[in-house]
Write a structure and sequence with these properties.
The structure holds 2 protein chains of 2 kinds.
Chain A: E1 5-16, E2 19-31, E3 36-40, H1 47-54, E4 63-70, E5 73-74, H2 80-89, E6 91-94, H3 98-101, H4 108-120, H5 124-137, H6 143-148, H7 156-170, E7 174-178, H8 186-202, E8 206-211, H9 214-220, E9 223-228, E10 231-236, H10 238-243, H11 248-256, H12 295-299, E11 305-307, E12 310-312, E13 320-321, E14 336-337
Parallel strand pairs in A: 3-8, 3-9, 6-7, 7-8
Antiparallel strand pairs in A: 1-2, 1-4, 4-5, 9-10, 10-12, 11-12, 13-14
Helix pairs in contact in A: 4-5, 4-7, 5-7, 7-8
Chain B: H1 2-29, H2 34-39, H3 46-56, H4 62-74, E1 80-81, E2 86-87, H5 88-123, H6 127-141, H7 144-158, H8 171-206, H9 208-215, H10 220-257, H11 263-272, H12 276-304, H13 306-309
Antiparallel strand pairs in B: 1-2
Classes of the chains: A alpha/beta, B mainly alpha.
Bound molecules: adenosine-5'-diphosphate, iron/sulfur cluster and magnesium ion.
Amino acid sequence: MTHLLEIDHLSVDLVTHRRYRKVLQDVSITVEKAEVVSLVGESGSGKSMTARSVLNLLPAQGKMSGNIAFEGQSLMDNTNKDWQRFRATKAAMIFQDPRASINPVHRIGDFLTEALVHNRDMDRHEALERAATILEQVGIDDAKRRLRQFPHELSGGMLQRVMIASVLLIEPQLILADEPTTALDVTTQADVIAILDDQRAQREMAMLFITHDLELAAAFSDRIAVMYAGYIVEVSTPAQLHARPLHPYTAALLRSRPLLHERTERLPQISGRPLSAFEAPPGCPFQDRCPYVQAQCSESLPPTQLINGSIVRCHRANELELASTASADAGTEGGQSRE
Amino acid sequence: MSRYLLRQLLGMIVLLLVTSFVIYASLFLAPGSPDALLFGAHTVSPALRAAVNRQYHLNDPFLQQYWYWLVNVLHGNFGTSITYRTPVALRLSAAAPVTAFLVIYSAILIIVSGVALGVLSALRPGKLDTLIMTATNIGTAVPTFVAGLILLAIFGVKLNWFPVYGAGAGFFDRLRHLTLPAVALAFWAVAYLTRVTRTSMREELQGDPVMTARSRGLSRRVVVQRHAFRNALIPIVTVAGLQVAGLIAGTVIVEQVFGLNGLGELLLTSVQDKDFATVQAVSLILVAAFIVVNTLVDITYTMLDPRIRLGANQS
Ligand SMILES: Nc1ncnc2c1ncn2[C@@H]1O[C@H](COP(=O)(O)OP(=O)(O)O)[C@@H](O)[C@H]1O
Ligand code: SF4
Ligand SMILES: [Mg+2]
């Protein structure tokens, strides 16, 4: 079966301080047509780089290896022109901070229509008409006036709706949404997410949704992939994650429940700080923070295993019985071994 | 928008008035009586003395004197040079076109080559970029008058490609005569503007708006023109504007090196000759040109950045 998007054993190296450093390790994930897959993890775990790899938009000198395929076609041998065509038609990205990402010197109308005008030779007036229609669909009224305004004249929530509209105008099959509400006012976050998911669903577009908020991801994803230090450590459905998380990191994330209205990306209940892939020790990347660590954890990288339809990367996944709430395993130091 | 423009122009006029007042008042602030300053060691006929007294209205109240002087200046009447016994306006009309030509010629050289080299450098990392950066390193280290002397020695004296002296007559002859001076004047500024352009282009190319534009599948040409270059223009225009305004002062040096009878040269000789009326007139013109250029730059700058143009009113 061909997937809409298939990322297969993707590794990415970026240059920092003149040295190549690994930021993604052996990342494999699929997205089906009209499916919503969330990437969840703490800051620096590699969520953004995963999404940017799909569009070949890594920082300068970034290198990727492994395979990315779209509708069964590998993108790895794409020329620049191929990439341009792919971005113009197949997959489009919603960036985290619309205030930074939307060019402040051009009018909203120009931002919304430039892809149509330059990539599809659409007449400017027709493109503006279309942009106005979509603006109304994402909940912006007085669209005609908005089109003539500049980005700084709109609030953050409005601007992110403009960003969503710009993606809908491209009519891609896949939306890559990189923390689309993290930079917004808490009062508008829920609205913006609702509009995004609603419009996406109406058009049967698939979405790779990035968030550090597992709760939010669970609310409307078909599947969730949990990332840690450049690895995907667990892929599961929201129901299964809640019933029985397989990876200790997922369990910790579930217990710490970062709420929608909190901006913090830290997990107060797990000691230690999140690592980037290049900082991770040999063996399991989570070993320094894991309450179940054993000798084998530092000896070898746990392979991915399939358990009850979920994918997990932990040596002890089969034997651990983890809970998703703090109360369920109170007094037992966060879980039990089956033994 | 037009309200903004109006405010800029009003500001400029006020600044010009204040400057003209300061320049006029300097006649009275300088040590010695205006009389002594105006005539210095010259022996003048009673007729001329009377004419100068009339010209400066030395017997009227100060503000009234200033007003008369200003009205005269606005009519192109800058009074009479005591040293040369000719109208100052006549001397200005010979010198000003030389300086204006030199400044405009040099400004075009700076803007065109500085921006072109900077953009090229930013878009083509590697050998070309290294070459351009090395050249600008040298360029920024060479003072204008040294650049002038070197150019004069190589292209004027040794190769004999360009005249070494004088401003020429007629457009093309003047162009030939003023090429070396204009290049000397532009030398440092081109190097500096190249670096500024390169840095701001690089920054924009790495920036978020460019990534967004690329993510939408826009071609490299559109990304570079509509996003990288368009945004980089804001710092480029600021620096280029300062440089062009600075050229006005720079001409004083270059006119000396190349023996050009421009305003800078006129200013220096008038100071030596204690020709006060001419000094006043030239200072006024140079400062006024400086203010006008700066205002033009301000207007261009704000036209490029809607955040300034429209204020930060959220809705
Ligand atoms: N422009 C960059 N150059 C080099 N390294 C980067 C760059 N951007 C991010 N990184 C590194 O890549 C890793 C993954 O980052 P990212 O994908 O942005 O994480 P996330 O989106 O999950 O917060 C981090 O270690 C980060 O430091
Ligand atoms: S492999 Fe070991 S250290 Fe890693 S998550 Fe599993 S138990 Fe913890
Ligand atoms: Mg990120």
